[in-house]
UniProtKB/TrEMBL annotation:
PROSITE patterns: PROKAR_LIPOPROTEIN. Residues 1-21 form the signal peptide. The keyword Signal applies. This is 27 kDa hemolymph protein. Keywords: Signal. The keyword Signal applies. Pfam families: DUF1397.
Length: 294
């Protein structure tokens, strides 16, 4: 369980940094991990708002709630979520506190302080999600429930025993391993996910669901990422990230889809490609959120 805890904690801290809007430099550094299309895109906050409004209008076309009202509720909830995150964790301060506490062996004190705020983080996220749900399709709502369950589990694992596992993660140079492989990670994402980023702004948002093709692409990215991380001095970081991917696969439809694909490949190398409707993988959803919150 410990290996997964470490990976989960690092992911939580990274996401906290993403949504901390006032730290533009951190966001800029984070973008170095993403496909080159992200940095070159002309996609703006107004574009994101327009696409989200169109989605609400389409989903709520025959509903009792006016799309304009629901969109405003989502926008207010998004601002509240950002304010909540800023009040819970300041990524710069967290890193300074960790650096100061490491030599004295007081990391557990620092981590326990932030883990005590975890219930508030869950509440803020749930309140935002409740508003977002109103503008999701039935299939998206089904996967949204699954995704929220996974996020809740990740947060619980992150603060298992007040987050003591992160001390080991730092000791094993996990963050340094990721930083040293920043360029390689970007190449992995380019090779796997660049096709999902359109050259022109889409006319509407695709469904935020995970299909068979996206599952296979995520596994391809995992293999590429792990291959580079295994070159680090310590073997632990690669094992932690691999455990995280394995957990996500098992908690979603992906493991079953991957198993079916492997079985089909064994029977016939010339099997027809999987048919799937165009969908936006979770990674592309994260890119969209980065644009909105930049």
């Amino acid at each position: 369980m410990t290996k997964f805890n470490l990976a989960a904690i690092f992911v939580v801290l990274t996401l906290a940094g993403c949504i901390h809007a006032q730290y533009r430099n951190f966001n800029k550094e984070l973008r170095d991990y993403f496909p080159t299309q992200v940095g070159k895109s002309n996609f703006t906050l107004e574009n994101a708002r327009d696409l989200l409004y169109k989605k609400c209008k389409k989903v709520l076309l025959n509903g009792t709630t006016p799309p304009e009202d629901q969109y405003e509720k989502i926008e207010r909830a998004a601002h509240q979520l950002i304010d909540c995150a800023n009040n819970i964790v300041n990524i710069t301060v967290v890193m300074e506190e960790i650096e100061a506490a490491s030599p004295t062996g007081d990391l557990d004190v620092v981590l326990a302080k932030y883990c005590r705020k975890m219930p508030l983080a869950k509440q803020c996220l749930a309140e935002f999600n409740d508003q977002l749900m109103m503008c999701l399709t039935p299939s998206e709502r089904s996967q949204n429930a699954e995704m929220m369950r996974i996020v809740d589990s990740l947060l619980n694992f992150a603060c298992h025993q007040n987050g003591e596992a992160i001390a080991l993660f730092i000791a094993e140079d996990g963050p340094k391993c990721l930083e040293d492989n920043k360029d390689n990670i970007a190449k992995c994402m380019n090779a796997t996910f660049s096709a999902y980023l359109p050259a022109e702004m889409p006319s509407e948002l695709p469904e935020f669901v995970m299909g068979p093709k996206q599952c296979i692409d995520m596994q391809d990215f995992e293999k590429c990422l792990i291959r580079h991380m295994e070159t680090c001095t310590e073997a632990t970081p690669a094992g932690l990230i691999e455990a995280l991917f394995r957990y996500v696969r098992k908690e979603t439809v992906c493991q079953a889809e991957i198993d079916k694909t492997k079985a089909a490949t064994q029977h016939s190398k010339n099997s027809s490609p999987m048919q799937t409707m165009p969908m936006m993988p979770w990674s592309a959803t994260i890119f969209l959120l980065l644009f909105i919150l930049q």
